[in-house]
Amino acid sequence: MSATTDTMPHITAAGLNSQQVQERLDSGKSNAVKTSTSRSVADIIRANVFTLFNGIIFAAMVMVLLTGSWKDSVFGFVIIINTGIGIITELKAKRTLDKLSILVASDYLVRRNGKDVGVPHNGIVLDDLLWIRSGEQVPADGQIVQTWGLELDESMLTGESRTVRHQAGEQVYSGSTAVSGMALVRVTAVGAHSYAATLTAQAKVYKKTVSDLNKGINTILKFMTFLVVPLCALLILSQIHTVGGLNHAIATGEWRGAVVSAVAGVVGMIPEGLVLLTSLNFAVAAMRLARHNTLVQELESVETLARVDALNLDKTGTITDGGIAFNRLIMLDTAAGANAEREATQALFDCCNEEQPNGTGKAVLVGLQAQDYAPGHVSARVPFSSARKWSAVVKPDGVWTMGAPEVILSALDGDYADVLRQVNEYANEGNRVLLVARSLPQSAAPTALSSQGTKVADSPRLDAHAQPVALVLCAEQVRADAEQTLAWFREQGVRCRVISGDNPVTVGAIARKVKLTGERAPVAMDACKLPEDVDELARVLENVDVLGRVLPNQKKAIVEALHAQGHVVAMTGDGVNDALAIKEADLGIAMGNAASATKAVAQVVLVDSKFSHLPDVVARGRQVMANMERVASLFLVKTVYSALISLGVVLTQIPYPYLPRHITYIGALTIGMPAFVLALAPNTRRYIPGFLKRVVKFALPGGIATALSVLLAAWTLPRVMGWDVANNAADLASLRATSAIILFLMGVFVLARVARPLNSWRGGLVAVFAAAGVIGLFIPFVAKFFALMIPTGTTLLATVIALVGAAVIFALCLWLVPLAGHATATILRRHGFAI
């Protein structure tokens, strides 16, 4: 409302004086709220730079650079890329949180020194007399001193879609919006102590999305850390021993080769490409979703989508679009003709066509205007009042009244039980029901209405002789895509619940309309009956589909109770009342028209507020998780065989059988690049917990087979071929080139196993990268840079024999390792271990 002080009602209250205002400002009792998040830019950079993964790779890179062999240190660039992605993502989240504000910053009118003056939002102080006018958002909590028909939309705070008419002495809360009338309010809470600021402060606490995928990868890294440090030291000692001891190594400079060889083992054990690919895959999924008007604010949340098995839906703004729509007018006298129905419909239009109609009145006007109805002749009117719950107009054909059925019928003479029964039936179907009644001109009570235009009489009352004429049905507008979307979630095994601040009967009716539970009728419950104990609440929720009259703290408690039962919970919403629950959920989803606070704490925002995007969002998450599990298996094979080869080298004191640049070349062609392609392939399999267990189970056979193949070649070929790998650099280069070829072949075998089925483009993928690896041998620059060698003569024969042996070992390991694992698990279970 843009009313000026000239149009404000005359009151005698003076409000605070200048000295009182200054005292409150000096003592911090103003409406200013500090805007800060829990993480600074320095914290974000520090958290992404100083990670376990970065530390291991950086230390290995420095060691190689100290030897002067910069070609073997190219693996270190992954640190820059991966760290950059993490920092950019979290800085974006920080900017979003810093902008978080439930309240709209604007000037407000307060009464000070007996005058009405405009002050900014932050200039309001405790005990101020504040004017709340139509169209304004309430900036601070307060108690109504005097009201002129103030009606508030509190849906952002309570979830209740109906507006509330407030009286003097009642409390109003910051964050609600005045839709009609005005009031003078004494401010009782400002700044961080106000209701909206309290919610904002709780919502602003930084919370990192927990990624099952990242947890699995970090578990691998932590395990490898305990293994890498001592193993690296042992590798260096063993490699120095192979060149003649420490003094000889230092004197001849061969310590450099020993360090490079040791780093080859360390780098191979770290799945550096997996960490990078995970970040890139999350980013690609986020970009794909953005093209469908879905904003992903935390990349890790893409993976969470795959694990969701419980979806809590806010009714208003999610299943419904938040608006009220006129449905139809039903004549109570079924024998009444078309003319009687037209008269009743015109009277309904005129009753709603007042200066400031409420939400229902506006919906009726829009619906009837679409049917070409226009204002009729009205000689007097009583505007709608929340206190009276009815309005009326005087027309040439009588006095027409429209309002709450139970209020109007209770004032009429006669028995209208049948009409009330119809009203209840329609209400139970989710309708908002109004009644239209008519008094003939000669029977209308003379004090019922004023004859002075739209002026309200001192005590208007209903005519007891009026006759009910028609029922008016209005309903919240259900989104056209709601039923289809809910059906998709049911098919995917996701349990959906509707949680709303509205009446549970109304919410339950809407849930039935969209077939929330399929052919089964949903079970509705009033949230006031919910237990406070988390475990008891969780048991109750298992048998409840719809909850009504839910408070904001109860929404959060519901999410916590579902967590206690092991569910992965997603929460949708658009109001401030949803913000805490959305933040508590594993995955928060906000509508595009949601309050800024809600959008800021959500991991996913449906920009165009279309509920139908959710299946695509979940499907994309499942694609990411299922494919990343596939490629994680590919990376972990390298970790397994690198660890085993390093252990074999330490125990047998042989030169390390390949260089870091070998593993860079082979890893890129058989793991890194193919993994990126496989990670982006279509996949709608629902994620099942146990990511790390399945990945390890897959990686062991391939890793053991590769390690045995390389170690057997390193142990036997020098003897068979007469190579002096300890003293002859050429012989050592031949062994390493042969080992690299074995590694490459085994890598192709593992890739083919991961990419199955091969009777599609996946088979072509394996063939292309296998061919690329072979072609690289014949390109001089590539061969020289990566120290590759084409075997010839007796070396070629030895290589062929080694490759055949490697293939046999691979087949045996695929058969024997799973059998050994199954037997071990059976034995452990017999002895009481949980496997």
UniProtKB/TrEMBL annotation:
The chain crosses the membrane at residues 49-68, 74-91, 220-240, 260-284, 631-651, 663-683, 695-715, 735-752, 764-790, 796-820. Coiled coil: none annotated. Pfam families: E1-E2_ATPase, Hydrolase. This is HAD-IC family P-type ATPase. It is a multi-pass membrane protein. It is found in: Cell membrane. The keyword Translocase applies. Keywords: Membrane, Translocase, Transmembrane, Transmembrane helix. Residues 109-202 form the P-type ATPase A domain. The keyword Translocase applies.
